[in-house]
Amino acid sequence: MSESGTAPEVSTGVAAAKPAHADPARRRRLVAMGLLGLASLAMPLLGTSYLLSAATLALYLAYVGQAWNVMMGFAGQLSLGHSLYVGLGAYVAAGIFVHTGVGPWASVWLAVGACAAVGAFIGLLAFRLRIAGVQLSLLTIAFAELARIGFDHIDALGGPGGLFLPVVNRGHVDLLGFRGPPTLYYYAMLLLAAGALALCALLLRSRAGYYWRAIREDEAAAEAVGINTFRWKMFAVVLSSAMTAVAGTFFAFYNNSLFPEQIFGFERSVEILVGPVVGGLGTLFGPIVGAVTLVVLGDGTTELLNRAGVDLPGVRQGIHGLLLLLVTIYMPNGIWPPLARALGFEAKRL
Amino acid sequence: MGSLTRRAFGFAAAGALATSALPRRLRAETAKLKVGVLLPRSGLQAFIGQSCQRGADVAPELLRQRLGVEVELMNADTESNVDTARSRAERLIEQGAHVLVGAFDSGHTAAVAQVAEQRGVPHIINIAAAPQITEQGYKFVFRNFPPAPEIGRNGLVLLGDIFREAKTQPSTAVFMHVNDTFGQSMAKGVAALLPTLKLPFKLLDTIPYDPAAKDLTVEVSKAKATKAELLLLVCRLNDAVVLRREMVKQRWSPMGIVSPGSPGLYEEQFSKGLGKYAENCITNTVWFNPKNGITHDFSAAFKKKFPKDEFAFHGINASYTFDAILIAADAFKRAHSTDHKALAEAIRHTDIPATDRVSFGGPIRFNAKGQVEGNRSVVLQNLGGKPTVVLPKDYAEGKLVFPMPKVG
Amino acid sequence: MPAASTIVNVVVSGVLTGIVYGLMALGLSAIFGVVRLVNFAHGELMTLAMYGAVVAFQRLGLDPFLSMAGVAVVFGALGYALQRGFINRFVSRPEHAQMLLMLALAIIIGNVLLLAFGPDARNVQTSYQLDSFELGPLLVDKVRVYAAIAALVTTALLGAFFRLTLTGKAIRACADNPLGARVAGLPVAHLYAVTFGIGAATVAVAGCATVQLIDVTPGLGPAYTLLAFVIVIVGGLGSMVGALLGGLIIGLSEALAGLLVSPSAKSMVSFGLLAVILLVWPRGLLGGRR
User: Which of A137, A306, A307, B118 is least surrounded, with the fewest CB atoms within 10 Å of its CB?
Assistant: First the structure.
């Protein structure tokens, strides 16, 4: 079974160490990022509450998509059960909060630990036992389902009736308990998404990045020159699951209610990966571009349908599916690579 | 004050009073109450969401006639997804919704409630059973639907009424339940309440099953093997159909099939799909009040707008959704204002008599947590292919049949 | 410990259910084995077939076991057209692209069904739908027996096709060695399309067989896709008999787990079994292919 996780387009080698002012492309990139950064920071002041909630959702999807992308881009494994980590992270943090009152800043580490352990287990299956490709993808689905049914039976965490976090006054900001107005959550998610992006960019430039590229280009050769491919692939998988755990913790404190059926569902796993795939699998900015595109497309379609007076349930999702179809057919590497080219950038690959 | 005589002042005062009163009343009457309706009209809960929507669709016309209030519906589809529910709620508020109604699913409702509370917009929950939603100390969230434990308790108490009315009682029972909110809550309720309620049967076994299960042969085999006389069943619609079919295939005919409180047995798909085998199945559930004038008006309006639908099959969904909008309209009438705070205050002081609501219960009054207490359940039995109220006697539309005759 | 008669009844029913599960997964296995396409729209195709059976019953009064052949032919043609005209371009694309394509198709089909048929459940009610064969203490569900027969016949037909006909052998050649097949001059695109058509036809048979057991709603797809995946992983992707075997194992284990342990956790047993089987036989029990 050939490892066909990466699209044909390959980035051109190592970035040359030219000073910023001398390299117009790099300058353009920095300016663009700076503008985007400013816009993101100012969003709560410029936008309405609705736009803020949409933006928070987009950032959430961007973050979780970036986390998923790490496993796909660095380790080449297609996970179809990433909702497992979201759910596990959410339940660990929420469970600790409900039973002991300890806030998310402490419990998130436990959530990360739990997910990292599970991720390591799945990595072991993939790399030591050679369950890879389609089999692994399908196995990840099975694990998410196991979690769903399992958590349905844990009464201490609410079971199928759901786990509700006690909500206190949301007027003022309580950083320690991570409670406050929606603006708090927006900035938290912005920080996470930006952090994930920065982390991936850093990793790309680091030794790890070189090893990953080497492994992806030719694993046998990499092994031959002494790279411990198992260790680096495991690192990617564990990192991916650990990052997703944080998203789960955020989800728990943002929505304040968790249901196994909803959080471990296959639809959630799909929701996580559609962003990166549509945006550009294995690229650095793909998940963000994809997440924003999907949220804009989704809400935009609803708006257009409302204006047109169409009130038929199911039409919006149908159009959504159609748009996904079109992107898959006409932009096989995702939206970001051609967009980047058009804007004069180069789509950085993981 | 000089040249203004007392009479002139009197006239002026009267004129001022008249002109200030008249436009305000006129304003209130010609002003519309914008109600944002959030329901899952697509996705996995589409069937129920669309059923609830019917109750909402009938509301504007009926409320104009009965209350003289203009209601404008702003419908939004939560798509059976919590993120969509949240963003639709935000969007509705932004588009000027004065009050929100929804959202059926407990998870979505909790998310909408958060948004409503945060934005200070009143949210009237039509249907959602998780008790925790009204335990969060919200000031803008109101619910006219009993939480699952209350439905369970009422349902179990009514069991005793059934046996008394029928002058027969089973000595053994088996309890099958779907592993979801209702099922879990009911299982706890049964365990806790059975000894105290002095119900006459011995519970032989409790058999939970996964709502996603496509095949329930094993579950029915286990239940049949207990040789219990009564089947207590907490289910959803799809598995109710599969279960009943399986019971027929395995030739198991207990003395009664009774749901102490859950969807399924009284629904259209069950009756249409099982024909004679659906007959005489019993559900103890919240329902509409068949004796109220407003219910007759409501069902007539429902029939006019949806001639192809049988009102009884949308009994709970349509009635409770309508009542939520009724509460909003009634509050609007008293508040004379569409201001969110004023509306919330007016809702808080709601006092709709038991005879002026479609859903069955006492007067609609909200307690300190924003919850209505005293919503009652009825004993519903499938008679002649339709869910019919058989108990309490005062509200009965038909006669209880128990034990269930064996169906050939 | 349950009574012997209960155990026997449960085991027999588990076997029958398992065979029907296998029938459901056959199409998925065939398509993957040859075209190497993971069909994420599998459940939606099955739902579509179930609606087809409902329509055939309501408009033409045809019993699903009779309309089976007709629906299968229609789906076969549909599948051929879909593969040849559309999916074929994606065969050489990476997995995730194929996956997204089929997912998008699944979303479209699901929502078109919602728009066309509404969210209400539809069913087929025949006169024998709730009958059982009685063999002493054994009560065997008639519909499941007929469905199991349909499953076995279909598997036999497929087996015969792939082993005895020229087209079938050519398809197997494509599966074993796509490049070699092309070099040898085999019309690969056409053969892939035939395979997809066969897969779709098999799904149609499964749908017609199941429509009397489960009422059909537009949202039924994803659950069936998941179930089919679990079965083919256990039985081995690409093996017909493997799909049946996988179905049997899942059906039987669920039945026994439900009886002896707890019905609400019986799915955990099948997923757990899946994990264990994969650990020992990473390719599935009968999955010999690449």
Answer: A307
Which structural domain range is residue C86 located in?
4-280
The pLDDT of residue A76 is 81
Q: Which residue has the tokens 């559900």?
A: B283
A317 contact residues in C (CB cutoff 8 A): 107, 110-111
In order of A135, C87, C221, C229, C234, the CA distances from C237 in angstroms are 9, 20, 20, 9, 8
- Alpha-carbon span C152 to B327, nearest angstrom: 59
| Number of domains composing chain C | 1
E-strand spans in B104-160? Answer: 123-125, 141-143
B256-259 and B70-77: which strand pairing? unpaired
Subunits with 3+ Cβ pairs within 8 Å of A are B, C
Q: Nearest C-alpha of chain B: how many angstroms from C160?
A: 31
The answer to whether residue C32 is domain-embedded is: yes
Q: Does B206 touch chain C (CB under 8 A)?
A: no
DSSP designation for A48: -
Q: Domain residues of chain A, as ranges?
A: 47-265
Chain A: nearest CA to C117, how far in angstroms? 11
What is the reported pLDDT for A128?
A: 81
Indicate whether C288 belongs to any domain.
no
User: Residues of B numbered 241-270 whose beta carbons fall under 8 angstroms of chain C's beta carbons: which are they?
Assistant: 241-242, 245, 248-251, 268-269
C64 or A219, higher pLDDT: C64
Number of CB pairs < 8 Å for B and C? 110
pTM for the whole structure: 0.88
CB of C126 within 8 Å of any CB in chain B? no
pLDDT, tens digit, 9 for 90 and up, residues B199-235: 889 999 999 998 878 889 999 999 999 999 999 999 9
Instruction: Say if residue A133's pLDDT is above 60.
Output: yes
**Considering only alpha carbons, which residue of chain B is nearest residue A149?**
B210
Name the band, by pLDDT with cuts 50, 70 and 90, for residue B176: very high
Residue A318 pLDDT: 87
CATH number at residue C117: 1.10.3470
CA quadruple A158, A110, A238, A197: dihedral sign: positive
Classify residue C285: in a domain, yes or no: no
Owner of token pair 């709709």:
B352
- B208 contact C CB<8A: yes
Q: What is the pLDDT of residues B61-93, one digit of tens each?
A: 999 999 999 999 999 999 999 999 999 999 999
